[in-house]
Design a protein that fits this description.
CATH class of one domain: Alpha Beta
CATH topology of one domain: Rossmann fold
Structural class: alpha/beta
Shape: globular
Number of helices: 20
Bound molecules: beta-D-glucopyranose
Strand content: 15-25%
Radius of gyration: 26 Å
Largest sheet: 6 strands, parallel
Length: about 700
């Protein structure tokens, strides 16, 4: 065991600052920086770099022999790319998410990564924002559950060590106005506490060892200088003792934010307010020594930050053994199998008129057309830096093994639509599968959109196909919800495929043929038009709810939060609400009946609307869910416990609550009961 206090004591100010410096290995760090103790953490290490050699330099050639943190953005896989997070969240499958996060970590660890900049637990109401693809959707309760699963997955021990998780971006980053990354954010403390903070609290309660701050602002401060968020909330209220890491060059950004006049002042502010690690702005490295010299009382702050970093490294087991070994074969068959399972559960069936799907007759001649017929790149999605398009299965590669008579025809984004050619191709086919949507660089950091429609020549292509009177099955790839009202009229079936990762083509084939029955449900509302944005299901209660309207269209989304179809139908009946032995636990029971010949994996959702409160609440809020397999022709009673303490403060729970509880297949449909709850008792008021 290293004596950390003794180690701290013998460090010079320069060496201390080194421990608070995280550099981009590609563009900023030199091996001498490691040797001379100027850097304690690195990111952006290429696959060709031997990370053990970097640790060796630190452990053998530097004076203090402190191991390195080696970070990476393992957002949806490392080399084996899984569905993008918003797609994965549509599985509502916490076990699968935890397992896959753990295996992605194993692949990253095999390359020496010991700090993962994830989970991203931001929430947004604006699909124009490019980073919506990294989120778990719009609901704070669901995001919190997924945050916990992901932290557990990342921090589950490997090789006797812990890889540290770094939930991000603390906080309110998704509130950027107009969906414009890095833009102004302005929201109330009520919204902060009820929407943006809960997923971070959950991630830290699950033991996340570090946290990353957001590029944006809260109240009158950039977050990098927010005393309220860092001192009041994070350290005092939540008692977080782990390491607070800035986002990329964020400390330096206090200058353009207009709250620091130069880098000297920026580093002084950031250290004073508690940012432990400076990620890539190098201002600690270049200015902190002078800051400390001028303000000796700040050395205490410096020491606390350094001690937190040293404790982190000790907790992770790095002082005992900083070296890594291959604990799993990168891109191995087992990892691909998990990527396939995740993709199977991420594809959302939005529409299926007259049961066009599944395609049970594989002898059918179908036309597969559009920009993504044999494209591999689209499936990687954003934030897949170590992914390789060659490892992805295209739609064509997936389908051609099964549909021997299929005809494949690529229409590239800039091609003019050759109407005669596609008419000819369509003549003797029974159905048309059209691949549509956004390339992967249409989402991700600072990849925002002004429009939410299908880009390039795709509307023209769909218009042409619609004139042939053949059922159209649309496969749509995207990093966000799109406003596809027109496509929705023209296509008989729509499968929302997001960016599905390496197994895309195989999963799409499984779903199209019915080998896999789609089970995913949306975690973000799909608007009808761009003008409905911001749009989300859990808006606050308003004074004239019946008057909320537009003169040129209604408020209804195209597809609501929680929506997704299967092949076959589930009937809900016999809803009951009870108290369990635990005084705060309401239990909802509902009977599910699978009336079809397909096995159905149903995501049962429970929402509550609170009828009378001391403060504003959402019109409806998700408060429980369960994913259950119901075999063909079978019934099952599903029981869901609602943790009211996650939704109400203790004082609110002491009062009498009147709750409308809805159990159903999505946020708009379900069986309802209104109950009164007080002192461990529940009275039924009405049923519908
Ligand atoms: C992003 C973070 C990311 C960091 C390191 C920043 O630009 O906002 O999410 O973890 O870069 O790559």
């Amino acid at each position: 065991m290293v004596d950390l206090l003794a180690l701290l004591k013998k460090m010079t100010v320069k060496q201390k600052i080194g421990q608070l410096t995280l550099l981009d290995f590609k563009n900023q760090a030199r091996l001498e920086d490691i040797k001379e103790g100027r850097v304690g953490a690195l990111l952006n290490i290429g696959l060709d770099q031997d990370t053990n050699e970097l640790q060796r330099i630190s452990m053998e050639e530097s004076e203090l022999k402190i191991p390195l943190l080696i970070g990476d953005d393992v957002i949806h896989g490392f080399q084996t790319i899984y569905p993008i997070p918003i797609a994965e969240s549509c599985s509502w499958n916490l076990d699968l998410i935890e397992r896959n996060t753990h295996f992605a970590k194993l692949e990253a660890y095999s390359h020496g990564i010991n700090l993962i900049f994830a989970p991203m637990v931001d929430i947004t109401h604006d699909p124009r924002w490019g980073r919506i693809m990294e989120t778990c959707g719009e609901d704070p309760y669901l995001t919190s559950q997924m945050a916990k699963a992901k932290v557990r997955g990342i921090q589950k021990a490997v090789d006797g060590k812990i890889v540290a998780s770094c939930p991000k971006h603390f906080t309110g980053y998704g509130a950027v106005e107009a969906g414009l990354d890095y833009n102004t954010t302005d929201y109330s403390i009520h919204r902060l506490k009820n929407l943006y903070l809960p997923p971070f609290k959950s991630a830290l309660d699950s033991g996340a060892l570090t946290i990353m701050s957001a590029f944006t602002t809260f109240n009158d401060q950039p977050i990098a200088s927010s005393r309220f968020l860092f001192e009041e909330i994070l350290r005092k209220e939540w008692g977080f003792e782990g390491v607070l890491i800035s986002d990329w060059a964020q400390i330096e950004q206090l200058i353009p934010h207009g709250v620091a006049k130069d880098k000297y002042e920026a580093s002084l502010k950031a250290l004073s307010l508690g940012i432990d690690i400076d990620l890539a702005s190098k201002v600690y490295l270049e200015f902190l020594e002078k800051v400390i010299e001028d303000n000796p009382d700040l050395e205490e702050k410096l020491d606390s930050a350094v001690l937190r970093v040293l404790k982190l490294k000790a907790k992770m087991g790095l002082f005992d053994n900083p070296y890594t070994k291959k604990v799993i074969k990168p891109l191995g068959a087992d990892l691909r199998k998990m990527a396939k399972e995740a993709a199977d559960e991420a594809i959302v069936l939005l529409k299926n008129d007259s049961g066009v799907l599944p395609l049970t007759n594989t002898e059918e001649k179908i036309l597969v057309i559009g920009p993504y017929v044999d494209d591999k790149d689209v499936h990687l999605g954003a934030w897949a830096f170590k992914g390789n398009p060659k490892t992805c299965i295209s739609v064509k590669e997936g389908l051609e093994k099964t549909f021997k008579k299929a005809v494949f025809y690529e229409v590239k984004p800039n091609d003019s639509i050759n109407y005669d050619k596609i008419k000819e191709l369509s003549l003797d086919v029974s159905k048309i599968i059209v691949t549509l949507g956004e390339p992967r660089d249409y989402s991700g950091e600072n990849h925002n959109r002004q429009f939410l429609d299908l880009p390039f020549n795709q509307n023209e292509l769909v218009d042409a196909l619609a004139t042939f009177n053949k059922p159209i099955i649309a496969l749509v790839f995207s990093g966000r919800p799109l406003a596809i009202t027109d496509l929705n009229k023209k296509a008989a079936s729509i499968l929302w495929c997001w960016h599905l990762g390496v197994e895309a083509g195989n999963s799409i084939t499984s779903v199209l043929t019915g080998e896999v029955n789609p089970s995913a449900k949306l975690t973000q509302t799909f608007p009808k038009t761009l003008g409905q944005v911001p749009i989300y299901y859990n808006r606050y209660q308003t004074g004239r709810p019946e008057l909320l309207s537009y003169v040129d269209g209604n408020l209804e989304p195209l597809y609501p939060f929680g929506f997704g179809l299967h092949y076959g139908n589930i009937k809900y009946s016999q809803m009951e609400v009870k108290y369990s032995a635990d005084i705060l636990q309401l239990v909802v029971k509902v009977l599910l009946e699978n009336e079809s010949n397909y096995p159905i994996y149903e995501i049962v959702q429970v929402y509550l609307s609170s009828k009378y409160n001391q403060k504003l609440r959402p019109v409806k809020e998700l408060c429980g869910f369960k994913k259950e397999m119901i075999e063909p022709g079978c019934q099952k009673t599903v029981e869901i416990s609602l943790a009211l303490e996650e939704h109400f403060e203790d004082t609110e729970l002491m009062n009498e609550l009147t709750l409308e509880i809805m159990a159903g297949p999505n946020s708009q449909e379900g069986l309802k009961q209104t109950v009164q709850v007080k002192g461990g008792q529940v009275w039924l008021i009405s049923k519908s």
